[in-house]
Amino acid sequence: MVATLVILAAGFGWAAEPSPFTIDAPPGWEDVTASRSAPDLVAAFKGPESSSFVLARVAASPLDNRGAIRAFLLDILTELNKKSGLGFAIKGSVEEASYDNGATAHFVRAELQGKPRLIVAVIDLNGAKFLGTLNSAVPDTLLPSIIGSLKDGSSASARPALVRQAQSLDGQLAFSLPEGVAARPLSEREKKLSFVLAVQGLGSELMVMKMVDDATPLKDQPQVVRGTVQTVEGVVAASISDPVLFETPPGPDLVYAWGRVKDPAGASQFAAGYLPWCYWGYSVLAKGPRAVDLVGETFKVLELGPGAQPKLVKETPEIPMPREFRLKRLGRRRLAAGAGAVILLALAALGRHRKVVGAR
Predict the structure, then answer these.
(1) CA pair distance 12, 66, nearest whole angstrom
(2) Separation in Å, CA 115 to CA 91, 111, 153, 269, 293
(3) How far apart are CA 139 and CA 277, in angstroms?
(4) DSSP characters for 121-133?
(5) Contact, 45 vs 52, CB < 8 A?
(6) Reduced to 3 states, what is the DSSP secondary structure of residue 208?
(7) Which phi and psi (to 5°) does residue 164 adopt?
(8) Between the CA of residue 306 and those of 174, 175, 254, what are the distances in Å?
């Protein structure tokens, strides 16, 4: 069966360059990749009772079109049946799953003699596309562990470097980030989810998502960001802050809230915020031992990006804070700077005894 799948992989228009990716074989399975010769073959595993797994690079795939994905996977299954002489029959529709390593799989299940036996998947990791075929008596059990072990083995020099002079993908926001803080490249999946910026530093990470069609009234955003923190698993309810307004240099206020997170690795924080910008806005999420500090370090150096129109930015409406939160403001117009500074200093002290991770 492994030989059939490798032959199949060789005939479906794979990309020309060798793959820098690696993947782990399940316990008890044999890695037979070295004995096969197919273009862009990443892995070929052989398991007990004729089980097998094959992964190969594939040229551009229409992952945004479920109909095209289904048609592609059906073509693969049809060709597989021809070459193997078996009678796999598709069962159900195209499904999607995401894994902790950043991989996303679009797959269909197939039965043999009425029993689950095969999964055929198109997989995306960091923009690279793969075809994976898993033949097993328990494909649902094995697929997450195999795909979840897929790693990008590209050399560090071939990857985009962390940068301190950064801007959002839409060109609206620009940052001259301080020492120890830097922007990292976004994955293809993050881009599709409308994230426009990722910042790392102080042992934490901050993500910015563009919100174009958000119908939430501006007056409700303070409660929304606090509610977002409340819904995060592991957040200590008693630690959740009231919303705070942080005045950015271009003018619009960032409203955010935060809370402590129970984490086996040590003390951590989660912060959620919203930045109105022209006639749209940005959602801000940060997590890590000094997530709150990272929010402040990032947005205190916010500048107009090359795509920003100063007049529209200047006309951005202000966030009306609820009466109980109206004195919580940080920035040049701060009305409660003393109280805000005490809070931030306390949070900074909480993170001082932890290792600081920054950009190199």
Answers:
(1) 19
(2) 10, 5, 36, 46, 54
(3) 47
(4) EEEEETTEEEEEE
(5) yes
(6) strand
(7) -95, -25
(8) 8, 11, 20
Strand ranges of the sheet holding 165-167, from the earlier edge strand across to the other edge: 165-167, 173-176, 302-304
The per-residue pLDDT for range 125-168, each reduced to its tens digit, is 877 888 888 988 888 888 888 998 998 876 444 455 678 899 99
The strand pair at 41-46 and 52-57 is best described as antiparallel
Rounded Cα distance, 152 and 345, in Å:
39
Neighbours of 336 (CB within 10 A): 16
CA-to-CA distance for 167 and 267, rounded, in angstroms? 30
Quick one: tokens of 113?
A: 């003699």
pTM assigned to the model: 0.54
Q: Where are the alpha helices (DSSP H) in the chain?
A: 2-10, 66-84, 139-147, 188-192, 221-231, 291-299, 310-314, 337-352
Cα distances (angstroms) measured from residue 177 to each of 31, 160, 165, 294, 355: 45, 17, 6, 10, 20
Per the listing, tokens 């022209």 go with: 278
